[in-house]
Amino acid sequence: MITEAKIARRKLSLLQLAQDLNNVSRACRLMGYSRQQFYEIRRNYQIYGAEGLIDRLPGAKGAHPNRVSEEVEKAILEHSLEHPGHGCNRVSQELALKDIQVSSFGVRGVWMRHKLLLIHQRLSRMENEIRERSVTLTEEQIRLLERFDPEFRDRHIVTVCTGELVAVDTFYVGRLKGVGRVYLQAAIDCHSRYVWGRLYTTKMPVTAVHLLNNDVLPFFEEHDIPVRTILSDNGSEYCGKEDSHPYELFLQLEEIEHRTTKVASPQTNGFVERFLRTILNEHFRVMGRKKFYEDVDEMQSDLDEYLLYYNTKRPHQGRNMNGMTPEQAFRKGTIKGPTENNRKEVKKAA
Question: Which of 38, 84, 138, 296 has the least CB density, counted as fewest CB within 10 Å?
């Protein structure tokens, strides 16, 4: 109020000075106002008197004239409580099916007034409602709470020794001129991050078996370490009838347990997924700009050189790696002998 009174007195002094000097331009120059400001101040003073000299913020007073009605606002809040993951456009479209017309900007305005603009805020509101009254959560609400729950996100696959869990996956590398599609069959030891990879022109169970039989299992046998469990997605090259599928039969023959990830949950197989992103950025995209490949054997030769570097010379900053190379972690992991309790722990975590 003191600042507003000073500004009002200064404006009044401007009007008096202009009257004494009988010169508007000179009075504005001395007081630091423009002629447009002077005429606006004089007009407000003539209409509203002394109150016209007080600065007022522009805008509507009270509720905004374009604000949605209370019924629409209540419908938006109820829908956001039941479906906190829906965005502005989705809420607007869902309400339109119920004959409630509101734009996405109207939904956003309601969220801003109630501090629900972020999905975390809407989830917190839902949790508070659950604490206050007994509510049965839907599958969508449970999935969202688990997705944004730090404890759920921070869960990891736990392995106690080398060979306890080997993750496999198929990666589409690209199309080679004159050859066709090229796929990478990859396998990674989840304890040491030691990887094996081989390129094929088909995505079949026989290629998945070939990688295990020719590269992965001989390497473990060389170090006298058994492979206990294979973790894969639900692709047709890995899954099928146990009595007829080549991959399933091969694992049964080698007495290796086969576990699959949850459908539409690639993060469950995060070790191999992270490796595929690394090899894409560090090898395939780089070599694709350096060389023109004519056959898969040439690509495989360069891939073998990269995997040798990856396993023996590239330090890793992943969980429990602390800058070790996969080869160092592989050897270190062979020292620990897995107990029955450790195996149960690994099985539960993976």
Answer: 138
- CB of 192 closer than 8 Å to CB of 333: yes
Burial class (CB in 10 A: 0-12, 13-18, 19+), 67: middle
Q: Any residues with CB less than 8 A from the CB of 65 and at least 6 apart, and which? A: none
From the CB of residue 97, how many other CB atoms can be counted at a distance below 10 Å?
7
DSSP 17-53: HHHHHT-HHHHHHHHT--HHHHHHHHHHHHHHGGGGG
Neighbours of 265 (CB within 10 A): 10
pLDDT at 146: 65
Q: Decide if 184 is inside a domain.
A: yes
Do 190 and 241 have their domain in common? yes
- Judge if 129 and 211 occupy the same domain: no
H-run or E-run covering 187: strand 180-189
Residues 6 or more apart whose Cβ sits within 8 Å of residue 186: 168, 169, 170, 171, 195, 196, 197, 211, 272, 275, 276, 279
179 and 293 in a single domain? The answer is yes
pLDDT for residue 308: 96
pLDDT at 335: 59
By the 8 A CB rule, do 168 and 137 touch? no
What is the identity of the amino acid at 54? Answer: I
Q: Is residue 60 part of a domain?
A: no
pLDDT band at 289 (very low <50, low <70, confident <90, very high): confident
Whether residue 338 sits in one domain with residue 278: yes
Query: What tens digit of pLDDT does each residue of 166-211 get?
Result: 999 999 999 998 889 999 999 999 999 999 999 999 999 999 999 9
- Phi (first) and psi of residue 121, to 5 degrees: -70, -40
Domain boundary, last residue among 105, 125, 152: 152
In SS3 terms, 216-262 reads as HHHHHHHCCCCCCEEEECCCCCCCCCCCCCHHHHHHHHCCCEEEECC
